[in-house]
Write a structure and sequence with these properties.
The complex is a heterodimer of chains A (176) and B (441).
Chain A lengths: L1 H19 L51 E3 L12 H13 L5 E6 L6 H21 L7 E7 L10 H7 L1 E6 L1
Parallel strand pairs in A: 2-3
Antiparallel strand pairs in A: 1-4, 2-4
Helix pairs in contact in A: 1-2, 2-3
Chain B lengths: L30 E3 L7 E5 L3 E2 L9 H11 L3 E3 L17 H5 L5 E9 L5 E9 L4 E10 L4 H17 L8 E8 L7 E8 L6 E6 L3 E6 L5 E6 L6 E6 L5 E5 L5 E6 L5 E6 L6 E6 L5 E3 L7 E6 L5 E6 L6 E6 L5 E3 L6 E7 L5 E7 L2 E8 L4 E4 L4 E8 L5 E8 L2 E8 L5 E4 L5 E7 L10
Parallel strand pairs in B: 2-4, 2-5, 3-5
Antiparallel strand pairs in B: 1-30, 5-6, 6-7, 8-9, 8-31, 9-10, 11-12, 12-13, 13-14, 15-16, 16-17, 17-18, 19-20, 20-21, 21-22, 23-24, 24-25, 25-26, 27-28, 28-29, 29-30
Helix pairs in contact in B: 1-3
The chains are: A alpha+beta (176), B mainly beta (441).
């Protein structure tokens, strides 16, 4: 587990090193043929340019897949603990934000409809703050992340069964 | 004020349509749920003799009959069963009413005064005792016609039950339409307690919640997400002027006016997690009441303004606590069920709150002296209890047939109504304080 993490961190660090060697932190779509900035050939072992941090929509790219980085994290009923399976992705977010200190995120916290609305507003904030705490513990500046709770007011799924409820108990990270 | 233990039976089934002589749209319908088991007071509310110039107005007797039926404590006699239709005391034949089992009969007439004001004069009779026990003339403008009728209901109700009538009160609630779509629309609606004359106080594309009335019924406070964060707004219900009074970092929510109207209890998470504060409305200074890492929320006031009742999960799950303002002494108040929240204190010191048992959310009533908990509702996902100012009825939010509706239940749980809206989902009801619309407020 630790070794896996270490390997991921090293991989992320390497990607980071390559990217900081390239032109700026401006979001741009991955473009297979483009030269990303250096005039002289650099001693890299790959022919294709390294992937950009962010896609055309301003939201992050998952360096492991080249597709969008997951930004929605789900929670159990009445709980605000992050799920272990989400921690790897959250670490990628932390690295992205540490590397792009001009970027900020809004973290929205949400609940399913059960329970009172005001308590759910507070629980939603707890969920958003769970994500924010993870990021700040991983080195992200607190000023880069803002928590907002919508309680149960902005359900993803309007259904009244457990399947709908599980989709509504979430925190969403959105880059600005 | 103690609710009298009047015995009654809910005889009524099916749709309960109210004729509207008023102008505005009706947002809420009323479905009566048949409960059975108690005996409502049979009363004859006789169609009133209306002056010819008032032909376009609804008969006040219809409104009075509906009001009394709505309380669950009266069973108005159907017009078709009435043997005579008196309008003046000398026309009342008591035998005609004894035969029908009526305990009381109300007769009256409506006329236009020389001043142009409209007047309803009514007479209330005790049938077994064969005597008149009340008469009064109620006057107002044409646009106050329904208020005149509701005043008659209040007077009759109080004379017979000893409890002040709440028929002249208003309710405010949230209407949500097209939720979950880009066309989502939320509004604060206000209507008479019977659902008539509803009007929009504020409308937004962002959610609204937690409506609270000021004690003089001139303003409401609520939570709005119009700035993409929860903030507290106070709005005048007549001028519609709005003011955002709490927009600190984090949550600003759960506003509740104090009984003297000078303070607003609220929840702010600006200091790290949701805590309860009191804001002085004249100078906007804050007094922080709770200090702990748990969620503290949903403050409400004791009627004497000396205590705050609130929800806290400091013990692991949400439970109700009480805080004495003079000493800051806090104590837990609920011990049954694994989730108790959003409490409101009645005038007699007892509580109603949201109570979860075996995973189901209901409204419960707790006798504070005898530590007895009674579940009042049988619907599901019940929340937001709001008590009528006379303590006799309770309105709350629930779900039926896949949509949000309001429910009404008598405080002893025996009478139940559903108030759905054809316009959308309705929720977050707030019953106004006592009002005197004919006196200008």
């Amino acid at each position: 587990m630790f070794t896996e993490r270490l390997t991921s961190l090293i991989a992320i660090a390497l990607v980071g090193l390559v990217l900081t060697g390239c032109a700026g932190k401006k979001s741009q779509p991955t473009d297979a043929g483009a030269d990303t900035g250096s005039a002289a050939p650099t001693p890299t072992t790959t022919d294709s340019p390294p992937p950009a941090d962010f896609g055309a929509d301003g939201q992050p790219i998952d360096p492991r897949t080249g597709g969008p980085l997951n930004r929605t994290f789900y929670f159990d009923y009445d709980k605000s603990d992050l799920r272990p399976a989400d921690l790897a992705v959250l670490e990628i977010h932390a690295q992205l934000l540490s590397r792009n200190t001009g970027k900020t995120v809004v973290i929205e916290g949400h609940c399913d409809e059960r329970g009172t609305r005001e308590y759910n507003l507070a629980l939603g904030e707890r969920r958003a703050n769970a994500v924010k705490s993870f990021l700040t513990s991983a080195g992200v500046a607190a000023s880069q992340a803002e928590s907002v709770s919508y309680g149960e007011e902005r359900a993803e799924d309007p259904g009244h069964d457990e399947s709908a409820y599980s989709r509504n108990r979430r925190a969403i990270v959105t880059y600005r | 004020m103690n609710t009298p233990r009047v015995c009654f039976t809910a005889l009524l089934v099916g749709w309960f349509t109210l004729l509207s002589g008023a102008v505005a749209a009706r947002t809420l319908d009323t479905i009566v749920i048949d409960q059975g088991g108690r005996n409502p007071i049979k009363i004859g509310v006789v169609p009133m003799r209306m002056d010819g110039t008032l032909a376009s107005l609804v008969d006040p007797a219809e409104i009075v009959g509906n009001d009394l039926k709505f309380s669950g404590q009266f069973a108005p006699i159907a017009r078709d069963n009435m043997l005579s239709m008196p309008a003046r005391p000398e026309e009342v034949i008591f035998r005609d009413w004894r035969i029908l089992g009526a305990e009381y009969v109300v007769v009256g007439q409506a006329a236009r005064e020389p001043t142009g004001a409209l007047a309803v004069t009514f007479f209330l009779f005790d049938v077994p005792g064969q005597r008149q026990i009340m008469t009064q003339k109620v006057t107002g403008r044409a646009d106050q016609w329904r208020d005149i009728a509701h005043k008659v209901s209040d007077l009759v109700y109080e004379k017979i039950t000893g409890v002040r009538g709440a028929f002249s009160t208003r309710i405010a609630y949230v209407l949500a339409q097209n939720e979950g779509t880009t066309r989502a629309r939320y509004s604060i609606e206000m209507s008479d307690a019977d659902g008539e004359r509803s009007r929009t106080i504020y409308s937004s594309s962002e959610p609204l919640m937690s409506v609270s009335w000021s004690p003089d019924a001139r303003k409401i406070a609520y939570v709005s997400f119009e700035t993409r964060r929860p903030s507290i707004v106070v709005q005048d219900v007549t001028t519609l002027a709005r003011e955002r009074i709490a927009a600190f970092t984090g949550i600003n929510s759960a506003p509740m006016f104090s009984p003297d109207g000078r303070q607003l209890a609220m929840v702010l998470s600006r200091d790290g997690n949701p805590e309860i504060y009191l804001m002085n409305l004249s100078d906007r200074t804050l007094r922080r009441l709770t200090r702990n890492p748990a969620i503290d929320t949903e403050p409400s006031w004791s009627p004497d303004g000396q205590r705050i009742i609130f929800t806290s999960d400091r013990g692991g799950k949400p439970q109700i606590y009480s805080l004495e303002l003079a000493t800051n002494f806090e104590e837990r108040v609920t011990f049954q069920g694994d989730y108790n929240a959003r409490a409101r204190m009645l005038d007699d010191g007892n509580l109603v709150y949201v109570h979860r048992n075996a995973g189901i959310f209901h409204i419960a009533w707790q006798d504070m002296r005898r530590d007895r908990v009674v579940v009042l509702t049988r619907t599901n996902l019940d929340e937001s209890p709001s008590v009528a100012p006379n303590g006799a009825m309770l309105m709350y939010a629930t779900q039926a047939r896949g949509k949000g509706i309001l429910g009404v239940v008598s405080i002893d749980g025996s009478v139940k109504y559903e108030l759905p809206s054809s316009s959308g989902d309705v929720r977050e009801p707030a019953w106004s304080p006592f009002m005197e619309p004919l006196a200008g407020r």
